[in-house]
Specification:
Blueprint: H1 2-20, E1 40-44, E2 60-64, E3 70-71, E4 84-88, E5 94-95, E6 108-112, E7 133-135, E8 157-159, E9 181-183, E10 205-207, E11 229-231, E12 253-255, E13 277-279, E14 300-302, E15 324-326, E16 348-350, E17 372-374, H2 385-389, E18 396-398, H3 411-419, E19 424-426
Parallel strand pairs: 1-2, 2-4, 3-5, 4-6, 6-7, 7-8, 8-9, 9-10, 10-11, 11-12, 12-13, 14-15, 15-16, 16-17, 17-18, 18-19
Length: about 425
């Protein structure tokens, strides 16, 4: 009986420990190398040189925060079984030509997070015929030799983001005929040769955001018919080239926010009927094309932080899938119901922080599914009740920070707010 009691007590204590254990007490595998598998080996901390050999079953090696400063010639001479090598946050400042010789099975190579890696020698990536993915991000690389990638015809992913590149040789990528992903974001590029991506006919993702480009060469992506994502966010672009994406018929994601674009040419997005994500906010747009799209299947359209003073009638008429329309932080002083023509499925309309002071009675009558309306931070002194009653499914209304005038003319609006307390979220000024 005593033994049984002791067993029950032990089980109770064990259960208590498991239930009260801190979540962080369990080993967290945030990175692949935190919990290596039996075919992986991780080297870290104080090692200064790459080991001469490793166990034959190891196919992936990681060098994390080591003291290695040079990757020497024939460093992996006796490790021909390796399929992946990653140098992450080390102190590498040079890589000798021949460092990656005798690696016929290597398909992934990463050298990232080295603040002293400024330059790569020509020929350093020779003899890597099986390589599919090359990551050189978050270093201080400021130039690349024209032929440095010439032997990497099978590479499909190339990451050069977060470096200090100021220019690119025009033939740099011409041999990368199988490249699908090219990441050049967060460098110091101020210009691009017009034909630099011409040979990349299989390219699907091109990320150029956060560089110093002030314009885009007219034919930059004319040959990249397979593009599904294109990003030029946070540049200094003032003018968007006409017909720039005319050949990118299967584009799904287009990011051009954070530039200084004042105007979009007519038909800028016409023909781009696969786009699901479009970001054009935080530019200097003063107006929109008469026809923004002829059938884009996006659900959210964000135009905030521009300088829109008016919207052409029917500009949104082909956005049949749109659910959320954001036009906040612009300079709109008036609205017409024709501006919202075709937006049968929009449930959320954000017009806050504009210059609106009055509304037509039927201005929202073409938005039958509208549930959330934001009119806060405008110039309203009153609102016509019919304009609100014309929104049958309204559930959330935001009116804060308008200069309401408390006189007899506002009585109808006051009564409407009292009657619809559940809908009005912030009526106070």
């Amino acid at each position: 009986m005593l033994q049984k009691r002791n067993i029950m007590k032990f089980l109770f204590v064990l259960l208590f420990v498991f239930e009260t254990a801190e979540p962080n007490s369990v080993t967290q595998c945030e990175n692949e190398y935190d919990c290596p598998k039996d075919y992986q080996e991780v080297f870290s901390t104080t090692i200064t040189e790459i080991p001469k050999s490793i166990k034959s079953k190891i196919t992936e090696v990681f060098f994390v925060q080591t003291e290695i400063s040079t990757i020497r010639k024939d460093a992996f001479k006796y490790m021909s079984q390796l399929q992946k090598i990653a140098f992450i946050n080390n102190k590498i400042n040079s890589i000798e030509v021949g460092a990656f010789d005798n690696l016929p099975n290597l398909n992934e190579l990463e050298i990232s997070g080295n603040p002293d890696l400024i330059q790569l020698m020509n020929g350093v990536f020779n003899n890597l015929g099986s390589l599919k993915k090359l990551t050189l991000k978050n270093n201080k690389i400021n130039m690349l030799e024209p032929s440095i990638f010439d032997s990497l015809a099978n590479v499909e992913e190339l990451y050069l983001n977060v470096n200090e590149l100021t220019a690119l040789p025009k033939d740099l990528f011409h041999n990368l005929v199988n490249l699908k992903m090219l990441h050049l974001a967060k460098n110091n590029l101020s210009a691009l040769p017009e034909d630099i991506f011409t040979k990349l006919t299989n390219l699907k993702i091109l990320r150029l955001y956060e560089n110093n480009l002030s314009d885009l060469p007219q034919g930059l992506v004319d040959n990249n018919h397979e593009l599904t994502e294109f990003s030029v966010s946070k540049y200094k672009i003032k003018q968007w080239p006409k017909n720039f994406l005319a050949n990118s018929k299967i584009l799904e994601k287009l990011y051009m926010e954070g530039n200084q674009i004042e105007e979009l040419p007519e038909n800028t997005f016409v023909g781009l009927n696969k786009i699901k994500q479009l970001k054009v906010f935080s530019n200097n747009l003063q107006t929109l094309p008469q026809q923004i799209s002829d059938g884009m299947p996006i659900t959210d359209l964000d135009l905030k932080n521009n300088k829109l003073k008016t919207i052409p009638q029917g500009a949104f008429s082909n956005f049949k899938s749109l659910r959320k329309l954001i036009i906040s932080n612009n300079q709109l002083s008036s609205l017409t119901k024709e501006m919202f023509k075709g937006l049968d499925k929009v449930t959320d309309l954000d017009l806050q922080n504009n210059l609106l002071s009055s509304l037509q009675d039927d201005v929202f009558s073409l938005l039958p599914q509208l549930k959330t309306l934001r009119l806060n931070e405008n110039h309203f002194t009153n609102l016509p009740v019919p304009s609100l009653d014309s929104i049958p499914k309204l559930t959330s209304m935001y009116l804060k920070k308008n200069p309401w005038v408390c006189d007899c003319n506002i009585e109808n609006l006051y009564d409407w707010i009292i009657t619809n307390k559940g809908k009005v979220k912030d009526a106070a000024s």
